[in-house]
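Structure, all three chains, one model.
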Amino acid sequence: MSWAYITTVLIMTGINLLAVIGLSVLTGFTGLFSFGHAGFMAIGAYTSAILTVWLGVPYYLALLIAGLAAGLISLVIGRLTLKLKGDYFIIATLGFGESIRLLFNWFDPIGGSRGFRIPSEIHYTSLSDVIIINLIALILIANLINSRHGRNFKAIREEEMASQVIGINIFRYKMLSFFISAVLVGIAGGMLAHLTHFLIPRNFDMTKSTFLTIMVILGGLGSLSGSVIGTVVLTFIPEFLRNFNEWRYVIFGFLVVLVMVLRPKGLMGGYEISDLLRWVKRRLVRRRGEKNESA
Amino acid sequence: MEKFIQFLINGIAIGSIYALMTVGYSLVYSIMNFSNFAHGGVIMLGSYFGFFAITILKAPFWLAALIAMTGTTLLAVVIERLAYDPLRRRQAPSLYYIISAMGISIFLENIVLATLGADFRNYPPLFQTSGFYIGGISIGKLDVLILVVGTISLFGLMWLIEKTKIGLAIRATSFNLRAANLMGVNTEFVIFVVFGLGGLLAGLAGVMYGLRYTVWPQMGLITNKAFVAAVFGGLGSLPGAIVGAISLGIIEAMATGYISSNLRDLIAFVLLVTILVVRPSGIMGKATEDKA
Amino acid sequence: MSLLELRDVTKQFGGLVAVGDVSLTVEQGSIHGLIGPNGAGKTTLFNLITGIYGLSGGTILFEREPIDGLAPFRIAQKGITRTFQNIRLFKDLSVYDNVLTACHMNTKYSVVEALFRLPARNQGEKKLKQETEILLDIMNLTDRRDVSAGNLPYGFQRRLEIARAVALKPTLLLLDEPAAGMNPDETFELLEMIKQVKREFGLTVLIIEHHMDLIMNLCDRIMVLNFGRVLAEGSPIEIQNDPAVVQAYLGEGGNHDARY
């Protein structure tokens, strides 16, 4: 196994991680499920590719614009769908996600179903790009979650009606959550485009959306560290089981059902690593206290 | 005009396959209030069962359909036992069901991919494409078969729901599961029957879809069409599901005929999104108001 | 001064009149009781006041301005909040976070300030945390601050829901059967707590309750609803002696209800 290969796997893991952090804001913290975020990933991927290839925009600026483009579209879609309840919302996101993919498939100037190639002289997404962007995203999102705005997300996830009567503008916060998730997923799409240097609409279908959602779920809804662990476990480790190839997805599907049946709150069960550390510390302090008393 | 009628008939034929898929999905939704995303996987396997029955066992159509339907009925019931029943015992929220269903769908799709490969397989041509000519309109024998079998099955289902004792139990349970349970309806059995019925029709739909088009591991994705149809008619409404599915078939046939086959799926999804935005309860769905 | 005024408020579901032509004036600083048999339309009235249902007729004035037609969160922001008959807490969040979340309107820092932890965010959070701790203290919940709301004993859940409502610093608090399922001791404790909260925060309270001891003890005025219509309105003494009320509650035979 070459270093180049391991690096590529790590970059891929990082790209997934960014998308999953975005989706965890929507799914883990606000309690909304989307089966259409691959559509935002496609928007980010194509926007960034067009910017770098046709207009010579620098990589990082292209990523930023790609994220904002996905965010902008999410505002339009959110405006139309976020008032829908339960399964209706999920099916609506599916409809929009597929529509976006089919539009790219049909639109010939950017390759249509044949795909869009990024020339090799254009920047390739590197490991350091992935690390920098993920760190920034993690810090910002952690900050947001630990604020009155982040708590309002959780309140909506827990109880919509109670949230309303304590003065939370549910629709506005759902829009915010949808927007943030779309921006991060859009940026991840841009990074993906510049890793593979080849874009094809087929790669942004509902299955892709489903996998992103599953990583959030397996990590644990409402836990950022859980999302990180879930993503690493589900992207990094399977890469080393390449011999099994299709079988790993069979195991994947099996695992999802198993988690729902046995441990529906996912690996981290809504707790953060920091919570665990705090718990361990408290334990140790208490233990020490008991020792001192007995001495 | 002849062209129009031609497209109309094609549309109704494909629409009745969609209807067979949609009713299974819609029945489960009406009882358990969640989108059974595993339904597509069941249909796909039904299509494979039929394919192998015809190619390996050299079975005629009716036997292949019977084999496929037996297989999918069993499959649907087993899925319910393994993936949903434990959730119901725990009274888990409906999102967990959807995720579990997603897991099943991934599992089924990839187990086929891993064992049979990603190839598209064509059913042997059991029915000649040439058929009847009425005026300038040709109707393929296969389409006639689909129309006849589809209509009989759907009427059979409607009869079962409207006129029999188990149908009454299903209707009561879909109205209110807990109340039905208290009133002495064996809701466990109702759920079992509903998944069985869904599986039965899924097998039939799979075979007919395979005959008309082709079989491949990702064909479960066409059940997205079933969701579109169900939403179009109103989630959880059985007549709505049938009307929605046939309308979708007609719209797709018209789009393919008059515009372009590339845009067929796009039009279906744009339609879905439009309906959700304009009238989310569908043409025949029930609207609900939250209670404090 | 009247704080809340309902004028001919009507709500129909299909053809069914759930609330019909109800008029009510709640004075600033008072505790107003709302009683009546099950299905009389009491909770529906709360849903109308808090904007969860739209009105079919009539109007609702709060601080002399009409509030009907506003979204529930706007009405909350104007200073009306409530508890629910079937408790609606943020179950997976801790007691502390339930109250802290509800304090959100008492500071104004923006999303950008939150993302980058700017000074306004830090000051705002500090203020909210202090307020939360004070409130938990008043409501005797400090011992259980880290418990998930869903794991609290029933009585404490009711208490937490009141704490969460008070965290908004409302002007008008609507309590929907706060003593339901409580034993006499707990009910007495709750009574004292409502009085204390009302005093400390200068609240006006509108309360639905079936415990007659509690209602008669607590309220300045009482309105009786029956089949969606006002049966009587007056001071506790007047209500206890109103023949129509006695009849509706006790039936023709005069079968005595222990709670009454």
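The longest helix of chain C spans residues 119-138.
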